[in-house]
Specification:
Layout: H1 2-24, E1 32-40, E2 45-48, E3 51-54, E4 64-66, E5 70-74, H2 76-81, E6 85-88, E7 92-97, E8 100-105, E9 110-113, E10 116-119, E11 125-127, E12 130-134, H3 135-141, E13 145-149, E14 154-162, H4 190-202, H5 242-255, H6 261-274, E15 295-296, H7 301-314, H8 324-344, E16 347-348, E17 351-352, E18 355-356, E19 358-359, E20 377-378, H9 381-390, H10 397-412, E21 415-424, E22 432-446, E23 448-449, H11 474-479, E24 483-484, H12 486-492, H13 495-502
Antiparallel strand pairs: 1-2, 1-14, 2-3, 4-5, 5-12, 6-7, 7-8, 8-9, 9-10, 11-12, 13-14, 15-19, 16-17, 18-20, 20-23, 21-22, 22-24
């Protein structure tokens, strides 16, 4: 079967290369970089130059292997990552790369490659509004070289692109990780003003911000012509929008530069406009599809938003300039968010526990986020929900009960005298692996907790459910945090002070 696959592919490749030879002359090793695109049959992902992205952002679509030999997949977001051209008019799909053009029409194998008619091994088809096309045929017609790894079930294309054509974020000293950790004097400096200008330039017209990498330079202005379009969507994921607003507020207060105010106001209104009537926020908005629509506590999304809006409502710090009307709107939004939190605390066997990472936007049922983030109670995100509840001035009995119940639950999930570490292993893809070791005095908590058994829950990119960390695939084990330490931090600092003040007669940490 493999030989038949190779023979068919060779014929297709030969025909394609004749059609594209002239166009390819302009792309040479001297002016280009080599890039790799990989698809694994069981995963709803693409891998471009080693970086993983969903095959179609926000959806769980996977590549397919037809007749055990032809890989077919939607290529829209892949083309976006490669800074290529893509269009679909509801009937004909077109791809453009390195001067080559491939056009295919739904329901027919007839294709046009640079104006020459060729027969594709499969006709394009619509799957959940995504256009699936034969992966090898299209990319060989665009100048790529195909390979198949039968052991991993992985199809791979290598191709040249002109140097600098694919977006690469500039790295810097002031990043998402460091911008809120600067000394107080820094926020009034010329360096801070430069960062503020970069932040404001990257703000979307809707008032929100897109995600940046943890080490990306905050002062840099994104080249939107090269930055993949699907990654430019406004979001509250990965602290986006929240940390920009906090940073701009600090810089405004320290520098007195009022030119920052309009950007802050747009950002605040973006958050207010994005709140669901049920009090939650989706992960991405106003452009939102698939699981991005869910009410999202994952990565502390809603907790971060509520923290910002609390400060806006109180007109604290860099938000002191906002109008009374806007502050009141923020206060209303915070109260709606608080009600959501109190109503959605998961109850198991009559006891309040923690919170799910995601809830459906309409019925508010626990639901999975990314393919490996299964519906579960979150041992990590619940901590920031607790922090928000503890920030409430003069909490009522319902808030106090919610905090104590969540702390009690997290205490029950503590895995004592254990620590997760990375150890060198030259036999592995990344040269390391993660293991749980014995460590006296250390504790870890599961990031996800089974809703039924209240046991740790693990998964992989395929969405399989595991009870043991050891069953997680290597890539997900090394690239994702399945155990967290955040509960221990709040147990040591934060909760004891709050408990002594608001719940002196009840301390679940001592039970």
């Amino acid at each position: 079967m493999r030989n038949k696959h190779l023979a068919l592919a060779s014929l297709c490749a030969a025909a394609s290369m004749i059609a594209i030879a002239q166009a390819q002359e302009a792309v040479t090793w001297e002016n280009s970089d080599l890039h790799t695109v990989s698809l694994i049959m069981s995963e709803p992902m693409m891998k471009v130059d080693g970086g993983y992205h969903e095959l179609i952002d926000g959806l769980y679509l996977k590549p397919k292997l037809v007749d055990k030999k032809i890989v077919t997949a939607p290529l829209r977001d892949i083309m976006d990552e490669l800074d290529g051209g893509y269009s679909f008019d509801g009937n004909t799909v077109k791809y453009e790369l390195n001067g080559n053009i491939v056009s295919m029409t739904l329901g027919t194998k007839d294709a046009l490659v640079n104006g020459e008619k060729l027969e594709a091994p499969l006709a394009p088809e619509l799957v959940d509004d995504a256009v699936y096309v034969p992966f090898r045929f299209v990319f060989e017609a665009l100048g790529g070289k195909y390979s198949w790894n039968s052991k991993r079930g992985m199809a791979e294309i290598t191709l040249l692109r002109p140097s600098g054509s694919i977006y690469s974020a500039p790295k810097g000293e002031i990043t998402r990780k460091t911008i809120l950790k600067q000394d107080a004097d820094w926020y009034g400096s010329d360096a801070a003003i430069k960062v503020a200008k970069g932040i404001m330039a990257n703000q979307n017209p809707d008032g929100g911000w897109f995600k940046l990498g943890s080490s990306d330079d905050m002062a840099a202005i994104v080249d939107r012509d090269k930055f993949p379009t699907y990654r430019q969507k406004s979001t509250i994921d990965n602290n986006a929008t929240s940390y920009q607003l906090i940073a701009l507020g600090r810089i405004l207060k320290a520098s007195g530069d009022t030119s920052i105010e309009p950007s802050i106001l747009k950002g605040i209104n973006y958050l207010l406009d994005g709140q669901y009537e049920n009090g939650g926020w989706p992960q991405f908005f106003p452009v939102t599809v698939g699981y991005h629509k869910h009410v999202t506590f994952n990565d502390n999304a809603i907790s971060n938003v509520l923290g910002v809006l609390e400060d806006v409502a109180a007109k604290k710090g860099g938000f002191a300039f906002v109008s009374d009307e806007l502050a009141q709107k923020a206060d209303t939004a915070v109260k709606k968010g608080l009600k959501l939190i109190l109503d959605q605390q998961v109850v198991v066997d009559g006891k309040k526990t923690g919170w799910c990472a995601q809830y459906t936007f309409d019925t508010l049922k626990c639901v999975k986020g990314r393919s490996y983030e299964l519906a579960s109670i979150s041992g990590g995100e619940s901590v920031n929900v607790i922090k928000f509840l503890m920030s409430i001035d003069q909490p009522d009995k319902e808030v106090i009960t919610a905090v104590n119940s969540a702390v009690s639950f997290l205490k029950s999930q503590e895995i004592k005298n254990k620590k997760m570490v990375k150890v060198n292993d030259v036999s592995t893809e990344f040269g390391q692996k993660r293991v749980v070791i014995d460590k006296e005095g250390s504790s870890i908590w599961p990031r996800f907790i089974n809703l039924e058994t209240l046991k740790p829950l693990f998964s992989n990119r395929q969405g399989d459910k595991f009870d043991r960390f050891e069953d997680v695939s290597y890539e997900r084990a090394i690239k994702y945090s399945w155990y967290v330490t955040d509960p221990g931090k709040i147990f040591a600092k934060g909760y004891p002070e709050w408990q002594a003040k608001y719940s002196p007669d009840h301390n679940p940490l001592e039970q």
